[in-house]
Amino acid sequence: MTAPRAYTQELAEFVAGLRYDQLPPAVVARTEELFLDWAASALAAKGLHPIPQFEGFARAMGPASGPAEILVSRTRSSAFFAAWVNAASSHLVEQDDLHNSSVLHPATVVFPAALAAAQDLGKSGAELIAASVAGYEAGIRIGEFLGRSHYKIFHTTATVGTLAAAVAVGRLLDLTPAQMVNALGSAGTQAAGLWEFLRDAADSKQLHTAHAAANGLAAAYLAKSGVTGAQRILEGAQGLAAGMSSDADPARLVDRLGSRWALLETSFKFHSSCRHTHPAADALLDLMQREGLAASDIAAVIARVHQGAIDVLGAVDVPVTVHQAKFSMGTVLGLIAVYGKAGLEEFRDHALSDPRVAAFRAKVRMALDPEVDGAYPRRWLGRVEVTTLDGRTLRGALDEPKGDPGNPLSRAELEDKARRLARFSGAASEAEASALIARVWSLHEASSVASLF
Amino acid sequence: MTAPRAYTQELAEFVAGLRYDQLPPAVVARTEELFLDWAASALAAKGLHPIPQFEGFARAMGPASGPAEILVSRTRSSAFFAAWVNAASSHLVEQDDLHNSSVLHPATVVFPAALAAAQDLGKSGAELIAASVAGYEAGIRIGEFLGRSHYKIFHTTATVGTLAAAVAVGRLLDLTPAQMVNALGSAGTQAAGLWEFLRDAADSKQLHTAHAAANGLAAAYLAKSGVTGAQRILEGAQGLAAGMSSDADPARLVDRLGSRWALLETSFKFHSSCRHTHPAADALLDLMQREGLAASDIAAVIARVHQGAIDVLGAVDVPVTVHQAKFSMGTVLGLIAVYGKAGLEEFRDHALSDPRVAAFRAKVRMALDPEVDGAYPRRWLGRVEVTTLDGRTLRGALDEPKGDPGNPLSRAELEDKARRLARFSGAASEAEASALIARVWSLHEASSVASLF
User: Fold this and answer.
1) Contact predicate B151/B192, CB 8 Å
2) Which of A212, A349, B158, B435 has its CA 20 to 30 A from that of B380?
3) Model ipTM over 0.90
4) How many angstroms separate the Cα of B401 from the Cα of each of A175, A391, B108, B283, B333?
5) Pairing of strands A298-305, A364-368
């Protein structure tokens, strides 16, 4: 009898051995871009519910000082609580990155844990980058492994995020491959996060990323100190896939390790809404510009989507919170139609109060599209069907939403986005935002990452 | 259309409204007994792997002082980290309590969280007792609700423990029913814990209870501060049962609230092994005493068990760690046969090294028994079939393992057990153990629980 292939072991060996000098320059540069995008997303949450509550709990339960920065407050704590608060912060305004085929938001779970551990351990920018890449490469493959069935009930960023954070922190701790397996075991057995909160517009999305980053970090530190974990937490008979997936494919765990850089496939978010709304939003914007349509010219819109969009967005008819509005296809398309964009300001100032947006929302419905669904999650195709008031039926199609790897944001666009995010909450002055940007663009040369500010 | 019954809401209303003066005297007394049994279980883990590693992480990531006691070290920290370490400690030596039909170990997740919060909030012994009862009543019903399918893959004490801890702490925080629903939502979406670690004898069992107690506590504190959670985390379409059970029965969530005291159904552990081994161990001991058999008279033993025992115990053939030995039916029956008991000392000193135990282990096998399986998990029937060297086939049967509600431990036996546990690790002197026992027997009158020692 042949022993079953040890997928968890193979993945652990790769990430435990990953060195900065193995990374292609494009991967280093993209990691800096993702890091800036992440830090700005965290800053944008300053003062917004429920982030002050998370800060309060960390103050009450964590140390009053420490090596790791809490970005929204610029206070310091232990690595555990800094990771916890920063992860909650960076997943609030729906501006953090997304990897398509894994449906994982890697930045919001990998970077908070990696930055906190790097600050705790006195690591360099290059070491932070290599560890973050390890977290992305592992997390993306684990998300792909767990498949679409997992995402129907579980918030992949929450569950897989725990493992991705553990890998990044484990790399900073120089875990051996055997210790990395233990870290994955301890992380995987703490992996949690259900979509149920979404229908109530509850605050769990931030709790999910906080939970993932902090407990993933703990799993790696515990592994370093000799705590063991399951050896096959991913593919074992009572492991993660056995409990939480019905279409898991273990081959995805080790897909082209070292030659495919999955981090490069990560998308930046352009609109401030759930990523599932972006393909239709871009397709509608493109169609309206092409045809010279105004919102008032439109009688009805069918957004032709994949099943996952219906699962995630379908729970809410009329949003009552800004956060819920970001998961409302009708509201997002309404902002696009009326304002030409769906940014943080549009959501805050108009998503719930502008009657034109509400009127447009009532004209929108989603329909499952076989072509779109078949391409998902590898490709996120945008397809809309618009009926005009004068009786025409028009079709919009866009194959790569703005921010996708094939339709990327430039460094100038990323800088602009980062400045807007920092400005939105007042978390950093223009000068501080500029300094942060400059620091991140030279992250690979930084001997220390002890202070982002 | 009628709205579906709001089970989570009903359960939350009951536990949020539970007052000490509603509790029957027997419930108060039993809670004290369970609390002593729990505290002694925690003390017994002092110095044993991986508890020093947990203490080290809490020291590194938590505050250097605080309101809440860490029992094994008699240091203090925040409520979060005290709950984390005490929960890990109390689930190590396999002496903590078990509720049969939910297959939940309530003490190891409820008491660490409740004690830490009570110390943080300056609560009385009566308030601690009422909160703990709330945690037991909710946790047991949630465990029953999730059913046997859940327990096949998930460690119910880990998953349900998060909610049970949140309820106990939520009661101490005087959460309103609406806040209690939020606490359940935040706890349930962090619920995690897979059995996969068992086949590798990994350290996750302690991590599971630590994770449950600390994150359950966090869920309640966050709810108090205004953080919301899913309103139907238990029974919702993307909730706990949807993701982690295929035989969930929502009616169990609200089963005779206020008239059935499920806490009274909790069993004390007599042997130091996995509870799934106890029915067969007691049946074998009974048979050997009845027939005057020695271990050397026995050629073969068939332990007739329920499926859950095979699922949990079947992964390991020959244990290599003491902890694994506690999950080895053959080893447990070997200790019973050779030493007449399977206590902490027998496991530490003989389970892995005594060739007579190893020889007996090789004679034991498990077989699924329809009667035993049909009664489980409500009743844990002990059935063994012994073949003697002189060719006889003998049957042993015992319907209530020692420690079950129908075959309980007296206060004198509980005191003796507590003293043995404290002595085992040297965590408390005989005088300190006596003082602890006296303090617990008057817990219901204590105006403060700030210090157990």
Assistant:
1) no
2) B158
3) yes
4) 45, 78, 21, 8, 14
5) parallel
Whole-number pLDDT of residue B1: 46
- Which residue in the set B80, B158, B240 is minimally distant from A61, CB to CB? B80
Interface mutation vs chain B, best among A77, A204, A221, most B CBs within 10 Å? A204
- Classify the C-alpha dihedral B363-B367-B372-B378 as positive or negative: positive
Give the Cα separation of B287 and A177 in Å (integer).
Answer: 49
Spell out which residues of chain B touch residue A229, defining contact as CB-CB under 8 Å. 197, 200, 202-204, 207
Contact, B120 vs B67, CB < 8 A? yes
pLDDT digit of tens for each residue in chain B (453 aa)? Answer: 467 789 999 999 999 999 999 999 999 999 999 999 999 999 999 999 999 999 999 999 999 999 999 999 999 999 999 999 999 999 999 899 999 999 999 999 999 999 999 999 999 999 999 999 999 999 999 999 999 999 999 999 999 999 999 999 999 999 999 999 999 999 999 999 999 999 898 999 999 999 999 999 999 999 999 999 999 999 999 999 999 999 999 999 999 999 999 999 999 998 999 989 999 999 999 999 999 999 999 999 999 999 999 988 987 789 999 989 999 999 999 999 999 999 999 999 999 999 999 999 999 999 999 999 999 988 999 999 999 999 999 999 999 999 998 888 999 999 999 999 999 999 999 999 999 999 999 999 999 999 998
- Phi, psi for A382 (deg, rounded to 5): -100, 120
Separation of alpha carbons B11 and B257, rounded Å = 8
State in Å, rounded, how far the first CA of chain B is from the last one: 57
**Residue ranges for chain A with pLDDT beneath 50:** 1
Peptide bond into A405 cis (omega under 30): no
Helix, strand or coil for residue B385?
strand
Fold of A275-398: 60s Ribosomal Protein L30; Chain: A; (3.30.1330)
Domain residue spans of chain A = 7-269+418-445, 275-398
Residue B350's identity, in one-letter code, is H
Q: What is the pLDDT of residue B5?
A: 86
- The Cα B244–Cα A245 span in angstroms is 10
pLDDT at B102: 95
Long-range residue pairs from A387-391, CB within 8 A, at least 24 positions apart, any chain = A387/A298, A387/A299, A387/A300, A387/A301, A388/A293, A388/A297, A388/A298, A388/A299, A389/A296, A389/A297, A389/A298, A389/A299, A390/A297
* First vs last C-alpha separation in chain A: 57
Residue A236 in tokens:
């074992």
Q: Do domains A7-269+418-445 and A275-398 have the same CATH topology?
A: no
- Is the entire prediction scored with pTM above 0.90? yes
CA of B149: which chain A residue's CA is closest? A243
Test B61 with A49 for CB contact under 8 angstroms: no
- Closest residue on chain B to A206 (Cα): B227
Phi, psi of B423 (to 5 degrees): -70, -40
Query: Domain A7-269+418-445 carries which CATH code?
Result: 1.10.4100.10
In degrees rounded to 5, what are phi and psi of residue A176? -70, 165
Share of chain B above pLDDT 90, in %: 92
Q: Looking at residue B378, what is its pLDDT?
A: 87
Are the C-beta atoms of A67 and A120 separated by less than 8 Å? yes
Which of the 8 DSSP states describes residue B103? Answer: T
How many contiguous H segments (helices) and E segments (strands) does chain A have?
Answer: 19, 8
Residues of A in Cβ contact (< 8 Å) with B199: 230, 236-238
Count the Cβ atoms, other than its own, within 10 Å of residue A91: 30
On the question of a cis peptide bond just before residue A4, with omega within 30 degrees of 0, the verdict is: no
Measured between beta carbons, which residues in chain B are less than 8 angstroms from residue A195?
238
Strands (E), B154-307: 266-267, 298-305
